[in-house]
Each structure stands twice: as structure tokens, then as C-alpha cells.
Design brief:
Blueprint lengths: L2 H5 L6 E5 H12 L6 E6 L6 H9 L3 E4 L2 H9 L7 E3 L6 H10 L3 E4 L2 H13 L4 E8 L21 E2 H12 L4 E7 L10 H19 L6 E3 L16 H11 L6 E4 L3 H4 L3 E12 L4 E5 L8 H5 L5 E3 L8 E6 L8 E8 L6 E4 L20 E6 L2 E6 L4 H5 L5
Parallel strand pairs: 1-17, 2-3, 2-10, 3-4, 4-5, 5-6, 6-7, 6-8, 8-9, 9-10, 12-14
Antiparallel strand pairs: 1-11, 11-12, 11-16, 13-16, 14-15, 17-18
The structure holds ligand LLP.
Ligand LLP binds next to helix 10 and helix 11.
């Protein structure tokens, strides 16, 4: 659609998503749906209620990591039996709330957590379904901040201790062991680390059987990468079929927790050029969007295409594309050849995942509005913050 025309009535910066693209991504997962698969969208990637509702309406469940995320999916009427709860630091209140909601299962990340869940379940006279998150110690080529399956990461139970933890869990009265899971990182572009992980997880399942611990599901986490620049990404169909084939002999339900690959390439951030500053050493395009709307470039050295809305033929210059925030880390792109004028619009691409959700009010900047294109219409799905809202919880 014509971003110039759309932007006439909207205030920049703003996020804009495409419902069609989200549906396409969901379909490429859901066409593999069967009684032996469950797709649990990882809410952290984009937790806007309208987007969650769309995702639930197409049959996906959810992977949540906090009371807040669980509250969001319960608010849109998600089926609790399709919700898994991950994360290393679940609080007692969070566990209690999840038990009251009747979620499918907790992905447990430590022995302490097993006891905490057991206590909460026993206090309200119910049984908690648990799956143990195992850290398979595989190396993944991604940014170190988003790799999670190596020994030095805080996530999961070390592989060598996992059997012992299962045995301990089996003795706790208010727990029912139903699964095993791993999540090795994010923006993964090769299937190798998944297959390596499955190999050791299958060996563990074998050991568990010998101890009479039978699992009904294996959760392979999320992590599938998308194309931001020139990455060779794993095709979703190939990924899902390979995993299903690999586990065929186990007769077990397979859970997937995709986040980025459902929404990442379905969103853009539209921003306006405020100033152009050219110096002897560097040229800067100063936008009205900043690290407070999109922190991925400074935080993970992430690359996002930045495209001018009006294409011009003449000379291009290299610019660092920056925002108004008072930090040298406030950049959205570096050394980008651009030819734009003040007041022109630019589009930051592929920001549907980990974009708005990681935005902040730093420098007391209002979080931007979010819109979605559905059936050719632009619908607002979150208004921009007002300054009064930002100040509302502060006391004088
Ligand atoms: N399951 C678990 C347990 C996770 O921790 C995550 C993501 C996912 C599923 C979904 O992974 P995905 O399919 O989206 O890769 N903020 C970073 C990404 C952090 C990912 C955290 N965990 C970024 O902007 O790249």
C-alpha cells in the first residue's frame, strides 16, 4: 500500500503490520497441524492483543513467560490447554495464576522451580503438568545475547543433570511429568543445531523410559530465523517436516514455539526525516524514530533495511541513520546509502518481532501507535502513549 498516502493521516513514527502476511506465516505452520503437533506462538515476539487474537483464531496456542503475557492471552480468550509457560524465574504468584488458568504445562528450568510449582499446586489441591527444559549444550551461530542452548547460558537444566531432575520430579506428589523441551536460541539459520539437540534429547527419552517415565510431548522451542539482509534461512516447511520425520519413531506430540518467524517480516516502522546533518567525517539522517521505538540495532547489532518512501535517481550519500535520543547508541542503521530530503518518510523493515515489545519511554518519549492493514483497511490496534499516561503512575 502507499505509505505516503497512509501517512497523511497518521503521526510518525508508527508501526504498521500486514494481516495477510501474518496469516501466510501462520498457515505455513498450521498446514502441518495434526493431533500430534501443537504450535504455541511465543507471545514475547509481539504481544499486541489484536495480533494474539488473530493468531488464536487460526488455531495456534501460546508460549508465555510472565503473568502479564498469560493475562494477555487469557484476555483474548485463548484455550488454556494450548498454553505453555516458559522462563527461568517464575514467581509464586505467577505459578498460582497459571494453575488457576489451567494451562497445559510449565516448562521447568531448575530444581528449585520444581519444588515451587509442587508447593503451589498442592496448596490449591491440583496437579501441575510439567516438562523439563533441558539445555542440550549446542552451539548456535547467532548473536550471543540470543543464544540460549549452551552450557554458559542461564536457561534449562544441564543435560547431564536432567535424568536426575526427572527422577526427583517423579517423587513430587502434585506434579505430573508430561514432556521435555529445549529452546536453543533465536534467529537460527541452520537446522543442524536442532538435529544435534534432538539426538541427545532422544537418548534422554530412552533413558527415561527405562525409569518408567513416559512423556507425551517434546517441545522443540522456537528460534527459526527470518531474512533481514542476505541470510539463507531455513524454509518453514522443511524445518517442520524434518523435525516431524526425526521424531516419527517416538509416537509423541511435538510442540513448536515460533515467535519471530510468525510476525517478524510482517511489520514496518514508518518514520520521518527530521534533519540532515553533514560533517567532514560523517553524515547523519536524524529521524523521528529512535532506539526507544526499536532497540534491536544497538542491542544486538541487528540489521534492518531502511528504505526511503520516495525513490530518487540522483546521487546517493552514506548516512548513519539515527534518532533524537541522547545516546551514541541511538542508531537504526549505519553507513547506509540514501538520497532523501528533510520531511521525507523512510520505512524500517522487518520489525514485526521484538520491535514494539522492546520499545520504552526513555527520554520520556511516548511509545508509538500500532496499525494493521486488514482487507485493505488501516486499523489502529494500539494508540500512541500520551504524556499524561506516561506520568500517570508517578507521585509528587
Ligand atoms: N521459546 C522460548 C523459550 C524463547 O525464549 C523464545 C525466545 C522463543 C520460544 C521464540 O523464539 P523465536 O522463534 O522468536 O526466535 N529480542 C531478541 C530475541 C530474543 C528471543 C528470546 N526468546 C531479538 O530481538 O532478536
Amino acid at each position: 500500500m502507499d505509505i505516503d498516502k497512509i501517512s497523511k493521516n497518521l503521526t510518525t513514527p508508527y508501526y504498521l503490520y500486514s494481516e495477510n502476511l501474518i496469516k501466510e506465516n501462520i498457515n505455513s505452520y498450521m498446514k502441518h497441524a495434526s493431533e500430534n503437533t501443537l504450535f504455541c506462538y511465543s507471545v514475547k515476539a509481539n504481544s499486541n492483543l489484536s495480533i494474539l487474537k488473530l493468531i488464536a483464531s487460526m488455531g495456534m496456542g501460546f508460549d508465555v513467560v510472565s503473568r502479564g503475557e498469560l493475562f494477555r492471552v487469557m484476555t483474548i480468550g485463548a484455550d488454556p490447554k494450548k498454553i505453555v509457560y516458559s522462563g527461568v524465574g517464575k514467581g509464586k504468584d505467577e505459578i498460582k495464576y497459571a494453575l488457576e488458568c489451567g494451562i497445559l504445562c510449565f516448562n521447568v528450568e531448575s530444581e528449585g522451580e520444581l519444588h515451587a510449582i509442587n508447593e503451589q499446586a498442592s496448596a490449591i489441591n491440583c496437579t501441575a503438568n510439567v516438562s523439563i527444559r533441558v539445555n542440550p549444550d549446542v552451539t548456535v551461530e547467532t548473536h550471543p545475547y540470543i543464544s540460549t542452548g549452551m552450557k554458559e547460558n542461564k536457561f534449562g537444566i544441564p543435560y547431564k543433570n536432567a535424568l536426575d531432575i526427572y527422577l526427583k520430579a517423579s517423587k513430587l506428589q502434585s506434579l505430573k511429568i508430561i514432556g521435555i523441551d529445549f529452546h536453543i536460541g533465536s534467529q537460527i539459520t541452520s537446522i543442524g543445531p536442532y538435529l544435534d539437540s534432538l539426538k541427545s534429547i532422544k537418548a534422554l527419552i530412552h533413558e527415561l523410559k527405562k525409569e518408567n517415565i513416559e512423556l507425551s510431548h517434546i517441545d522443540v522451542g522456537g528460534g527459526l530465523g527470518i531474512k533481514y539482509k542476505d541470510e539463507n534461512i531455513i524454509n518453514k516447511d522443511v524445518f517442520i517436516s524434518t523435525i516431524i520425520d526425526e521424531l516419527n519413531d517416538l509416537n509423541i506430540t511435538i510442540l513448536f514455539e515460533p515467535g519471530r518467524s510468525v510476525v517478524g517480516d510482517c511489520g514496518i516502522l514508518v518514520s520521518q526525516v527530521q534533519y540532515i546533518k553533514e560533517t567532514d567525517d560523517k553524515n547523519f539522517l536524524i529521524l523521528d524514530a529512535s532506539m526507544s521505538e526499536l532497540i534491536r540495532p544497538p542491542l544486538y547489532d541487528a540489521y534492518h533495511n531502511i528504505t526511503p518512501v520516495y525513490k530518487k535517481e540522483s546521487m546517493y550519500k552514506n548516512y548513519d541513520i539515527v534518532g533524537p535520543v541522547c545516546e551514541s547508541a541511538d542508531f537504526l542503521g549505519k553507513n547506509r546509502p540514501m538520497n532523501v530530503d528533510v520531511s521525507d518518510l523512510v520505512v524500517v523493515e522487518d520489525v514485526g518481532a521484538y520491535g514494539f515489545v522492546l520499545s520504552s519511554n526513555y527520554n520520556t518519549r511516548p511509545k508509538p501507535a500500532e496499525y494493521i492493514i486488514s482487507n485493505g483497511n488501516i486499523n489502529i490496534i494500539r494508540s500512541a502513549d500520551t504524556l499524561d499516561q506516561i506520568l500517570a503512575n508517578e507521585l509528587l
